[in-house]
Specification:
single chain, mainly alpha, two-stranded antiparallel ribbon, 2 strands, globular
């Protein structure tokens, strides 16, 4: 990949910084959830991000935004709606389940994009995608069961499991949290599929600003409807919500977009798998939340499945381009 200018910073360092940035999201959310409802946190995250982008969008992209077609406005409206649902459900999941389980489940987004592409984009599902999906679904089942089953030591060389009853498992908060994380992954897949349909004809700034702003509007409407208060929290809570918008939302994702100018897309895509690992490490350090063995095993299966799907999709894209 050739470029006319040499980057001021190492692209590899920028990608690493991006992974660290997005990995902080769950930590800031957990701290803010001590006082603020999840819906309010999501609304502040997207609202602040859109407000920060507003001056740049006004100076550089207002003419483009003004001339969007009706179809583009509709697709952007739907993309913003799915993005709002993604953050509302995923942030809520962190109230009920562990950071390790929540983040690794919401990271399954590429799997659902690949699964839905034949229906939405008329793209054929390859054998590698099917294998990766099966492995990741097996990992999701292990992660889902990790809160209701514990590995116990039995007489002899083979350990066993002590599991809650099905009724207790269904009533458990962890199962609800894991399901919310999966809903977050499904909504993110819808957001990305819609983005594929419209992103090629729009600049990154105009697309990002309009989608973030639309998602923020939906979330603030939901806050008003549900009568949740956006005020009255401590300074620490507001700082955490500000950091959510700046660090993982703007710095994290902007780092990946910048690095794509200098590094292969395959490399950048695979490095995104570092987010669940980074989030789990940060949760262990700052919140003393250590993943269980089943979470580690199930999360590993999910990451392997995502890697297989990502590699297959990139190879298919390269063949189409070549």
């Amino acid at each position: 990949m050739e470029h006319s200018t040499k980057p001021k910073f190492s692209p590899y360092f920028v990608v690493f910084a991006g992974v660290v940035a997005v990995s902080t999201a769950s930590i800031f959310i957990r701290l803010a959830q001590r006082e603020a409802p999840s819906l309010v946190i999501a609304a502040y995250r997207l609202g602040i991000a859109a407000a920060i982008l507003l001056p740049m969008a006004w100076l550089q992209a207002r003419n483009e935004i003004r001339h969007f077609s009706r179809r583009e406005y509709l697709l952007l409206l739907l993309a913003g709606f799915f993005l709002a649902l993604h953050f509302a459900s995923w942030i809520s999941s962190l109230q009920y389940t562990s950071i390790a389980s929540s983040v690794v489940l919401v990271t399954t987004t590429p799997l659902w994009v690949a699964l839905a592409s034949p229906l939405v984009l008329k793209e054929r599902t390859s054998f590698g995608v099917i294998i990766g999906l099966i492995i990741a679904l097996a990992g999701s089942a292990v992660v889902g069961a990790s809160e209701s089953c514990q590995l116990i030591k039995l007489p002899g060389p083979v350990p066993g499991f002590n599991c809650l009853s099905l009724q207790d498992t269904i009533r458990g908060e962890a199962l609800w949290g894991n399901l919310l994380a999966l809903v977050g992954a499904w909504c993110a897949a819808g957001y990305l599929l819609l983005g594929r349909r419209v992103r090629s004809s729009l600049s990154l700034l105009s697309y990002t600003f309009v989608v973030y702003g639309t998602a923020a509007a939906f979330l603030w409407i939901a806050v008003v409807i549900t009568r949740q208060s956006p005020i009255g929290y401590s300074a620490l809570t507001y700082i955490c919500m500000l950091m959510l918008a700046v660090v993982p939302q703007l710095i994290g994702h902007s780092s990946f977009n910048w690095a794509l100018r200098y590094l292969p897309a395959a490399f950048v895509a695979v490095t995104l798998l570092g987010e669940p690992i980074g989030s789990s490490l940060l949760a262990t350090i700052f919140l003393q939340e250590i993943p269980t063995l089943m979470e580690v095993f199930g999360g590993g299966l999910i990451l392997v499945g995502i890697y297989l799907v990502t590699r297959t999709e990139i190879r298919k894209h390269n063949l189409q381009q070549g």
